[in-house]
Each structure stands twice: as C-alpha cells, then as structure tokens.
Amino acid sequence: MTHAPDRRVPDSIPKTWVDRAPEPIRPYLRLARYDRPIGFWLLAIPCWMGLALARVPEGLAWSDLWLAVLFGIGAVAMRGAGCTYNDIVDRDLDAQVARTADRPLAAGTVSLRRAWIFLVAQCLVGLAVLIQLPPLAILTGLAALVLVAGYPFMKRITWWPQAWLGLTFNWGIPVAYVAVAGGFDLAVALLYAAAVFWTLGYDTIYACQDKEDDALVGVKSSARALGPNAKGGVAGFYVLTAALALAAGFAGGASPVFLIGAALFAAHLGWQAVRLDPEDGALCLAIFKSNREAGLLLVLAYGLGAIPAS
C-alpha cells in the first residue's frame, strides 16, 4: 500500500535531526513527536522531581544517576507511545484542525496497522524500563495505563481535558518516589497535586493556540472553558502549583536551601503568567516550551533540599 509523502507538522522545531533521518522512518519519528522534544522533558521532569524529593531525608546517591537515566528512557518511550495512541484515536479530528492535519495518521503517511505495531514496540521499551524498579513501583507504574487509555477521549467528554493530562503526565512522580522511598506519604501527594496544577496551567497556555479550530470541530479545552479569563486562570493554577510545591518540600523535610530553588521556580511561573497573551499563538507556544526550564528549577530545588543544613 502506498502512503502519502512525509510532511512537517507546523509546530515542529525547524531543521531537527528528524528532517535529516531516512525518509521511510521519518513519519514514525513524527508520530512519536521526536521533532517536538518538549513533551519528553515534561514527562521525564516529574520523575526526576519525585526522585529528588524522595532523597531529601538521606541525601542524593550516585545510584540515583542510573535511576534518572532509566526514567529518561522510559519518558521517551512512553511519551512516544502516548502520542501514537492519541493520534490513532484522534486521526479523524486531527485531519480537521490546521495545526494537526499534517500529523502522520491524519495525513496518511503512516497506516493504522503500522501505527499500532509502532505503539506496541514503544510500550515494550517502557515495560523493559519499568521492570528494573521495585515491585511496588512497577504496580504504581502499571496503574497509569487507565489514565493513558482515557486521555484521548477527555476532550470529547469534559471541558477540562488538561486536568486529566495533569493526572497522567505527572504519574512519574509517585513511581519515582516509591522506587526510592518504598511507599507513599504526604510529601509525594502534595508534589503530585502541585504538578497537576502546573500541567493544567501550561497545557491551557498550549490550548490557547487551538481555540478557534477546537470550536469548529467541537473539541473541548480549558482554554475554551476559561475564554477571556484564560490569563487569570493560568495565574491561579500557577499560584496553587508554587504553594503546593513549597508545602511538599517542607513536608519532606527539605533543608532551608531548598527555598532558593523554590523561589526561582515560582518566579518563572510568575513570569509566564505576566507575559502570557492568550491571543498570540506564537507567544503561547514559546511560553509553553519554557516549562522545561521551570520544571528543572523545581528538580534543582528538591536536590538542594537534600543537602544537609549543617
């Protein structure tokens, strides 16, 4: 069966290595969003947050580097798998939206059957990473499948699919925390809640790009729900994020130096909220992508919090 030629997706980073990859594999790389690496970061960073927070009581260890690498590999595999699954479910909707019409399934550059095979292959890589962890962490990781399976349908059901994405994208926090700490406590619950509001904020910013197209095809989003109040809504989500992240550090017993990183994280979120113009699509995309730096600042904060005070 012949497929349409490879197409670049509008919000891909220009001239990435994906554009230079052999043509037969290029559509699969686009399907897994290798041309849009911000998603890999936003899935890996919560894992690293959970890892760093879990180490607060006893300090970071060299073995944590191996765990951080494992979580990074798992994030790449599972984000690619999640995007593939999302595009399988949304292929008809994507074809009706300007920003997504060139995605491989919507554009016909990858067949449905091959997309399913590619999805299974990526899931097997994620499973190979997961089984390196302790049993409770494995069970915690498998529980995320319910969230992942439901996510593509949320935009058809609720005005707040971004909240479901927050629950899904940040599941690495409890997985990583349990892998190190051996159980759950208040600190990890607070951090998970903080990350859910963080995602609700940054994905609302992202959704502002698609408000008109989403309205035309009947797709719901927090950006559409908030309407003219999107800027204030994002600010509110970010205030809750910063407050809960701070509370998580204190609950975990972080040393006072943690406050340096926490302040930088809060300042970055404040900068995003002030700068945001929901009607400027290019600016929304740039601010959305800056959340890589924001998230790394919170990882730094908990890393600093693991340094003994004396």
What is the CA-based Rg, rounded?
A: 19 Å
Number of domains: 1
Give the DSSP E fraction (strand runs of 2 or more residues). under 5%
Q: Stretches where pLDDT falls below 50 for ≥5 residues?
A: none
User: What helical percentage do the residues reach?
Assistant: over 70%
Question: DSSP helix count?
Answer: 15
The H/E string reads: HHHHHHHHHHHHHHH
Average of the residue pLDDT scores: 92
CATH architecture level-2 label: Orthogonal Bundle
Please give the alpha-carbon distance between the first and last residues.
67 Å
Largest sheet: none
The number of distinct β-strands equals 0
How would you characterize the overall build of this protein?
The chain is an all-alpha fold. It has 15 helices and no strands. α2 runs antiparallel to α3. It is globular and about 60 Å long.
Q: How do the strands and helices of this protein lay out in sequence?
A:
Blueprint lengths: L25 H6 L6 H17 L8 H32 L9 H4 L4 H19 L4 H23 L3 H9 L2 H10 L4 H22 L3 H7 L4 H5 L3 H22 L6 H18 L5 H9 L1 H15 L5
Helix pairs in contact: 2-3, 2-8, 2-9, 2-15, 3-5, 3-6, 6-7, 6-8, 7-9, 9-12, 9-14, 12-13, 13-15
